[in-house]
Amino acid sequence: MAELKEGDAAQLHQEDVDIKREDGGDAPSTGDQVTEQEVKTEAAADSDAKHSTTTTERHISIQTKLEGLELLVDLNGAGRKSCPLCPEEKFKACYSHKLRRHLQNLHWKVYVEFEGQRMCICHLPCRNLKPSLSGDQASGRHVAHYHCVVCSVTIARKTDMISHLKRHVNKGETEASYCGSSDVPFEEPAPSGQAYEIMKELGTNVQLLPNHTTPQKSDTYFNRKMKTNRQLVFCSLAVLAEERNPLECLDAFGATGIMGLQWAKHLRNAVKVTITDISDTCVKMIKENCQLNHIRVDGGSRGPRGPDWAGGEVEGVPIATVEVAKMDANVIMHLRPFDYIHLDPFGTAVNYLDAAFRNVRNLGIISVTSTDTGSLYAKSPNVTLRHYGCHIVRTEYYKELAARMVVATVARAAARCNKGIEVLLAVALEHFVLVVVRVLRGPTQADESAKKLRKLVHCQWCEERVFLKLGNMVDDTLPCNCHGSLPGKTAVQLGPLWAGPLFNTGFLRRMLSAAVQHSMDDIQPLVKTLICESECTTIKSLFHGPSALTNQVECGVVIKTLESQEESGPADQSGKRKTGEESGNVVKKLKSDASLEHPPFYYSIHRHSIRGMNMPKLNKFLQYLTEAGFRVSRTHFDPTGVRTDATLVQFKSVLTKYSVPTYTNAAATQTSVSTEKTV
User: What are the tens digits of pLDDT across the range 292-303?
Assistant: First the structure.
C-alpha cells in the first residue's frame, strides 16, 4: 500500500507540473526540475527493489551448503552472537562454538532438498501467530516452518513440504521457472519454460520433462520400467527387417519418440520410421530429440549427403531419417499401409485394433502393448468385460490368462478385416502385456484363427482347467472330481480366450540373435526362457546355426531371410505363400506336429504344495516330471510355475512322491544329537 501511495503521489505531482507548463508557457524552474528528478529516481529505485525481491532474492533459510548457513553470522568474531533463524526470545545470544552446533543440529539437520537447494527450518516470525487455547492470538506462539523454494509459501511440517514439492513437480513447476537467476545450473529451457532431463537408453538420447512420470500431468510420458518392452519390440522389428527391407514401420504413440528413434538409429536404411502423436508438445519434443541424435526429420533441412551417409556417424551429417507427424493414430493407420505397427497407448489398445488391421501389409507384424493391468489381471472384471468382451476370475495363472485374452481380442479384430494371425510372442510381466502377431490375409486364414477362440472351464476349488470343446458338458469336461465330491457347482466358464500357441520358436531364436547382435544383455535371459517355454523343454543349449534361422514355417507360409533368398535365386521372394501340393504338404505337416505345441497354462508348485511336507527344489522337480514321461518347462509368467502336459492329479502325485515330511528331518536331527551325547 505504501508503494502504491508513493506512485499515486508521483503521478499527481507530474500532473501539477504539466498544468504549470501549460499555464505559464515558460520552461520549468530549476526547483521543479530537481523535484521531478527526485521523484523519478525514487520510483525507479522502488521498481528495482520490487523486481529484485520477486526474482532474485530468496529466504535466508534456503542454502546449498552448511557453510552458506554459517556465513549468515560472523562465527570467527569474538563475543556473543544471535541465531539468524531464531528470535531472541527463543534462542539467546551465545558464543560461536555453541551457535555453530545450534545451526547444524537444529536448522541444517532437518532440511528438505529440492534441485540442489536445501530448505532449512526457520523459527523467525514469518507466519502468523498460532492462537493460544483461549483464542487470543497476541499471546500465542510462533510455529517453526519451511520456506518453499518455488513459490515462497511457508509450511510447518516436513512431510507436508515434501508433498507440496511433489505437486510442483507434477505440474511442471520448478525452481528454475520461478527464479530469474539461480546458483543451481540447469539444462536448456523447454518450450514450456521447464527444465530438461537427458536420458540415454540403447545409445539413444531423449529429453524428458520433470513431470514425465505422471501421464495425467504430462503429454511426454516416459516410463523407465518399460525398457524390457521396448527391447522386445526392437528385436521383433529387427527380425522382420532381415526378411525384407526397407520396411515402413509406425510408432503410433510417440510421446518422447524414444522407440522410433531407436529403430532409426540402429537399423538405419532397413526401416522407414514414422512417429505420430496427437499432442503439439510431444511432436515438438520428438523433433528436438531427433536433432539430439543426429537424425533428420522428414520435411526439415537436409544435411549434406556424402560417402559416409549410410556408414558412420559424422558430425553435421544425419545418420537416418524419421517422419514426424501430428495425427491421430486411427487416422494415419486408415490412410497409409505399413509393414510394422506398434501400439502402446496409455491403457488398453482395443480402440486402435480395427484401424491397425485395416491397411497392414500381408505378412506384416503388429505389436500391441497393454498397460491396463487392473482389467487384465482380474482386478476390475466389469472393465474387462467392457473392453475385451471376456469373463475372467482371479486364478493362479492370471498372467497367461491376460495374454490369451489380449490375443483373442486381436484375433477378432483381424477376422473383421478378413485377416488371420499367427502369434509370434506373448509376454505378460508386472507392468504390461505384450503381444506380437503376424498378419495373414484371406478369409481362410481368418476362419482358422477364429476356430482357436474357445471357452475355458475352470474349477474354482482345485484350479484345474481345460478348454471347452463343442458338444461337451461343463462338469464332464474337467478331469478333476470336485463336482462330484463337493456340493454345488464348482466350475465356471471363462473367456472366450485364445486356445492356440503363444510362441513361435523360430522367430524367438532369431530375436535372440538380434539381441546378441545389438548387445541387449537385459532381455537375453528372458528370450532364452521363452524359447525353452515354446519347446516345453528344460534343455538350455540353443542352436544358432543358419539352418535354424533361415527355415521358418508359420501357418503354411514360408518365411525366408535375406541369406536364403540369395541362395534360392531371384524367383523365390520372401513372404510368398506356397501353392499347390507344396502348401498342402506343409499344412499336413503342421497338423501332424500339432502335438509339439506347448501345453496351455501352468501350475504353481507353491500353490499345490502339501502341508507338512518339504517340496523338492524346482529344478529337481522338473527332472522328476521328465522321468515320469511328461513334457515340462519353466515359464516366464511365474517364477514358481511349471508348464507341463500332465493333469493336476498327475502333477500332485509326482509332487507328493518326492516330498519329504517335515518331522522326518527333525527326528533325524534329534537322533544324531542323542547319539553324540551317548558317545
Answer: 999 999 854 444
Residue 62 burial class via C-beta count within 10 angstroms: exposed 0-12, middle 13-18, buried 19 and up: buried
C-alpha cell of residue 195:
527444465
Q: Helix, strand or coil for residue 278?
A: coil
Alpha-carbon distance of 403 to 449, in angstroms, equals 16
Contact in structure between 320 and 249 (CB atoms under 8 Å): no
Q: Give just the sign of the alpha carbon dihedral 249, 251, 257, 259.
A: negative
Find the length of the chain: 679
Provide CB contacts within 8 A for 277, sequence distance 6+. Answer: 219, 253, 254, 255, 283, 286, 326
Scanning 77-157, the segments in alpha helix (DSSP H) are: 96-102
Residue 450 cell numbers, joined = 477364429
Q: Which three-class secondary structure state does DSSP give residue 275?
A: strand
pLDDT tens profile 370-422: 999 999 999 999 999 999 999 999 999 999 999 999 999 999 999 999 999 99
DSSP 12-51: HHHHHHHHHHHHH-SPPPHHHHHHHHHHHHHHHHHHHHHH
Neighbours of 38 (CB within 10 A): 12
DSSP string, 497-528: EE-S-S--HHHHHHHHHHHHHTT-TTTHHHHH
pTM metric for this prediction? 0.66
Rg over CA atoms, the chain: 36
Mean pLDDT value across residues 335-347: 95
* pLDDT value of residue 479: 82
* CA–CA gap between residue 76 and residue 68 (Å, rounded): 14
Are the C-beta atoms of residues 511 and 236 closer than 8 Å to each other?
Answer: yes
pLDDT at 521: 92
Distance, in Å, from the CA atom of 449 to the CA atom of 420, rounded to the nearest integer, reads: 6
SS3 of residue 79 by DSSP: coil
573 pLDDT tier (thresholds 50, 70, 90): very low
- Alpha-carbon gap, residue 183 to 215, rounded angstroms: 30
Cα 345 from Cα 347, distance rounded (Å): 6
- Find the helix or strand (DSSP H, E) in which 9 lies: helix 2-24
Q: Rounded distance, CA 152 to CA 146, Å? A: 9
Q: Say if CB 423 and CB 408 are below 8 A apart.
A: no
Q: Is the pLDDT of residue 17 over 50?
A: no
The SS3 assignment for 439 reads strand
Amino acid 229 reads N
Provide, rounded to the nearest whole percent, the portion of the chain with pLDDT above 90.
45
